[in-house]
């Protein structure tokens, strides 16, 4: 199979491990991912504090403390207000970091940066550099992320995600969680009774998103171009959902979706995307406009249409798809990079207004190198570089983006808004 990472499979064997160690080659860890048989980590969460915690809300009874080697460490650094407080971060993590299990997690909790106290802001911003640096060195498939928050109850869905195998390919991220009402949530089927539409859902990342949202209880509508309708129909039938054959660039796409969903929509995942790579000097206008149209203009058009029509219900979620190419830029991708950066602009501007006016959150996932048909088409050398040039030393899988989407789509994620979360194994590109 084209898409397989043969090097990763090889280093997973005894001779492969032996040979690559002798040659001093990288040895990416086999990442632990969610499965129905092993949905969580065994080993518990070690709770640590640096400074005097400034969090309100309940403590974290849902994350049991470890008996032995922790699967994860949760460091509450919200009370760190100065450089002396940062020494407590070192003192807390230095003795335990080695003992965190393979594929384990380090989650640092920080406070919003103060505009009135530059010592606090310096210390809290320092946590970002700390987190990203630890992510680069920790190894063994372990991840490190920073969550800025004030209230623990609004952050439960985020912490559950980050402290689980579902966040296998999310590392080096800074996520801000605001405040929201506490909800009664069915954590095993959080999307039960909700409808989710995934554009470009027939294959690749979109198909994994459809599958994961269906696992979480959603009734899924798989939208894709008419040419992909056989795959879309097959997937929809398997997931007990429906399919919609529609080119998302059609001027009336929003109206057609609204028509197909008279009972409304709860989760809109803008996943359809294309690449038409060429350096700018060689890029005909058609390559520019087709990429901008699919990846950005149609996202803007359908979002506007579905919000205006009231198809997206209160409590709704929009998850758009950016890319690390939109954050870092990429050779041959001025069109694609522009379109994906545009998605980031859309998310940041619309998020507060959509929440205030429609009760809908707007976030984006920004995938790095994910093993799909899109990346299988990348020339071998660049493909191999893309795979290895991140802290986890391997490409991600479509399911990694899907799990991140499911967290953002979660009914309890109402306090996560306007965020762009990279699913890139902490890629060196644009880091
Ligand atoms: P893919 O090419 O495997 O699948 C994309 C799907 O979108 C296809 O089913 C395609 O038919 C559909 N589609 C394309 N144009 C459409 C249109 N006009 N209307 C409706 N559907 C349309 O791609 P993928 O790798 O699964 O990528 C999914 C998304 O993730 C894209 O937005 C892509 O830019 C983004 N992304 C992917 C990667 C990666 O490494 N694979 C990295 C960063 C971002």
From TrEMBL:
Domain of life per record: Bacteria
InterPro entries, per the entry: KR_dom, NAD(P)-bd_dom_sf, Sc_DH/Rdtase_CS, SDR_fam
Residue ranges constituting the Ketoreductase domain according to the UniProt record: 194-368
An example molecular function term from Gene Ontology annotations: oxidoreductase activity, acting on the CH-OH group of donors, NAD or NADP as acceptor
Family matches, as PANTHER family: 3-OXOACYL-[ACYL-CARRIER-PROTEIN] REDUCTASE [NADH], SHORT-CHAIN DEHYDROGENASES/REDUCTASES FAMILY MEMBER
Family: Belongs to the short-chain dehydrogenases/reductases (SDR) family.
Protein name: 3-ketoacyl-(Acyl-carrier-protein) reductase
